[in-house]
Specification:
heterodimer, A: mainly alpha, globular, B: mainly alpha, two-stranded antiparallel sheet, 15 helices, 70% helix
Chain lengths: 306, 360
């Protein structure tokens, strides 16, 4: 065992990278849930985004186009969920599960022939002066564009939800869809848009896994990230800022356990690998004492006749 | 413009028709998908749904149908209890693994002793293993209000890691020359879940699945618990007033579904699979969710849906080897089935009406 082989600066830098996929997915799901919809298909949308982004990036040679394709792929899958739950008024839990099962199959099918290929590299941005700072430079200022985009998205989601009229309407729909409908807001339309946004975010998160974090395509590569993102929303009490904190926490744990595995700690690899999932459960237990934060209409189907 | 008008009561007719409609639509869309993959759609559908039952090698496939359907039905019956009450156990895959580990563990502990009581002990251990794994989300939900969906799912990944650890560590075959995996229980007569009638595929798991179907049927039609489960799912408030204890119901549903999934895992590892290994679980726990919904959460429906999904497993393997259809296509096919079922289900609860837009 050699713990001195773990470099804290590199650890923090990879923490930021590791947290980005779940951060993106969780932010999307946060908006969906604030609109009163529970989409359990995050895992399916993420993995679909992962393969869409990967395949397009490999074929075009541009990771940027890949990320756009991933967002579209995730949103396309989310559209299926939106049609099911908002237009056909299907049960949201069942539809979300269907989305995950379908997404896992679809991605495996699309991913035929993409195994073992390296994607085009996503360039890291060099910021003059800032990137050269000791410690802070590698940790904060020498990442790729998506990392900064994810951080900007945290601020944007917070601002839109809490400081704009659109955010107020979205929250109203999530808290009491009957009242929002009575005020003349198009509940179904707003929810469909939120679901599409959530799908696009999950797709981006998945593509970040396959294009930057890993970077290659393997079947089932999201390995529960989508579910961790769902847990993150609960952990964050449906607040954008806390999603960031939670993502860093989970990113940190997964990076740390990988580093411990590499350093050859006396704990068996399998036990280290299960730690992110166990800690997710632990965090859920601690956070679920406070149920009051959940949007009041979460998971309830809206039909104008009710 | 089409408008939905809520039915006063779910249509009985459509309750029966929608699963069949969903299967037909899935076949059509699936056929189009296979055509897009460059396969002859008619041949692909025939290879999956017809050949295993009536084709040249049906004598081989028909027993397989029961072998694959048994765990699906056993797990789905358990899940249907919770789903009916609005308790979402989606971690059956993990409970299946834990049941197999517990069952095989007990069996291997007795090796090489031959005794009649070993197999019954393994059955009990398997049920207890799955039960314990299912009780974790149950207890956390009743004690702390933790979401059982997320916890039960997280525990699947934990169970998979535990399976790997056991296959490479504690349960590894000491005479296996370092290969991963336990002793093969098929070569240990006291622990072997052998076919009861040779050549039919009927092993104890199939019998258990049939018993589970009958018990679930009696439970829902004749027993107070079954009534309480239905009441809690359809009218939680009324259930509270009627004296249904929601915490107790949660524990019973999650515990029972865990135990049934554990049994399925135990029968699988001691029979068709034979040994604990890294790739022991093949997703029965997740496919069983589709089976439960496709069977309308009704025991007889689940029996039929389990047979149908088992057919897609076998037909899928068949199409993989004969037509070169990727294995993932079948997984997607199963996902699609659930999708279409949920979509056409709108017909059960709503009437479609043509309406000209009214000026309000």
């Amino acid at each position: 065992m050699d713990l001195s082989s773990i470099n804290p600066t590199l650890l923090l830098a990879s923490l930021i990278v590791a947290s980005t996929p779940i951060l993106l997915a969780a932010l999307g799901e946060l908006v969906v849930e604030r609109a009163g919809v529970l989409n359990l298909g995050v895992e399916g949308m993420m993995i679909t985004g992962a393969i869409c982004g990967f395949a397009i990036a490999v074929n075009t040679g541009s990771p940027f186009v890949g990320f756009i394709a991933a967002a579209l792929g995730g949103a396309a899958l989310a559209l299926l969920f939106a049609i099911l739950t908002q237009l056909a008024l299907a049960n949201q839990v069942a539809s979300g599960l269907a989305l995950t099962l379908f997404g896992l199959g679809l991605s495996a099918l699309l991913g035929q022939g993409y195994q073992g290929i390296k994607p085009p590299p996503t360039a890291n941005i060099k910021i003059p002066v800032l990137s050269d700072l000791p410690v802070l430079g590698p940790v904060l200022f020498s990442h790729d564009l998506m990392v900064y985009l994810a951080l900007a998205l945290v601020a944007t989601v917070w601002f839109v939800l809490n400081r704009t009229r659109a955010g107020l309407i979205l929250r109203a729909v999530g808290e009491n869809h009957g009242a929002a409908h009575a005020l003349g807001y198009k509940v179904i339309r707003i929810r469909i848009l939120a679901i599409l946004f959530g799908g696009a975010c999950a797709g981006l998160g998945g593509a970040y896994l396959s294009l930057v974090r890993v970077p290659q395509w393997t079947e089932g590569m999201t390995a529960g990230s989508g579910w961790i993102a769902l847990a993150l929303v609960v952990f964050a009490s449906w607040k954008a800022g806390r999603v960031l904190l939670g993502a860093w926490l989970f990113g940190g744990i997964s990076v740390l356990q990988l580093n411990l595995q590499a350093a050859g700690v006396a704990i068996p690899v399998e036990y280290l690998s299960m730690s992110p999932y166990l800690i997710t459960i632990l965090v859920l237990v601690i956070m679920s004492a406070d149920k009051s934060r959940a949007p009041a209409s979460l998971g309830r189907t809206f039909h104008a006749s009710d | 413009m089409i408008q939905l008008e809520k039915r006063p009561q779910p249509s009985r007719l459509w309750t029966f028709l929608t699963p069949m409609l969903a299967v037909v639509i899935t076949m059509i869309v699936g056929g189009a998908l296979f055509a897009a993959l460059g396969k002859n759609p008619v041949e692909a559908i025939r290879t999956i749904f017809w050949d295993p039952l009536f084709g040249e090698f049906a004598f081989y496939y028909r027993p397989q149908l029961l072998v694959k359907a048994a765990p699906l039905i056993l797990i789905a019956i358990g899940l249907s209890l919770g789903f009916k009450a609005g308790i979402w156990n989606i971690g059956a895959e993990g409970q299946y693994i834990m049941g197999a580990l517990a069952g095989a563990g007990v069996g291997l502990a007795f090796y090489p002793l031959e005794a009649a009581y070993i197999f019954p002990l393994m059955v009990i251990a398997g049920a207890l293993g799955g039960w314990a794994w299912g009780m974790i989300p149950g207890l956390l939900k009743t004690r702390f209000g933790t979401n059982e969906i997320l916890v039960s799912l997280m525990l699947v990944y934990v169970a998979e890691q535990l399976l790997a650890k056991m296959a490479l560590g504690l349960l590894r075959n000491p005479d296996g020359r370092g290969f991963p995996g336990s002793r093969n229980l098929q070569q240990y007569p006291s622990a072997h879940n052998a076919e009861i009638i040779a050549g039919t595929g009927i092993h104890w798991g199939v019998v258990a699945a049939l018993i589970a179907v009958i018990f679930a049927y009696i439970l829902f039609t004749r027993h107070l618990l079954g009534y309480q489960i239905r009441l809690a799912g359809q009218a939680p408030k009324a259930a509270r007033f009627a004296g249904v204890n929601p915490a107790r119901l949660t524990l019973v549903c999650l515990g029972l579904s865990g135990a049934l999934a554990g049994l399925a895992g135990m029968f699988e590892v001691s029979g068709p699979a034979g040994q604990i290994n890294i790739d022991f679980n093949v997703g029965y726990g997740f496919t069983a969710i589709i089976v439960a919904f496709l069977g309308r959460l009704h025991p007889v429906g689940i029996l039929l849906a389990g047979l149908l999904l088992a057919l897609t497993f076998i037909g899928g393997e068949n199409a993989e080897s004969n037509l070169g259809l990727p294995a993932a296509a079948i997984q997607m096919f199963q996902g699609m089935l659930l999708f279409f079922l949920l979509a056409v289900d709108v017909l059960t609860n709503f009437r479609l009406r043509w309406k000209t837009a009214e000026v309000v």
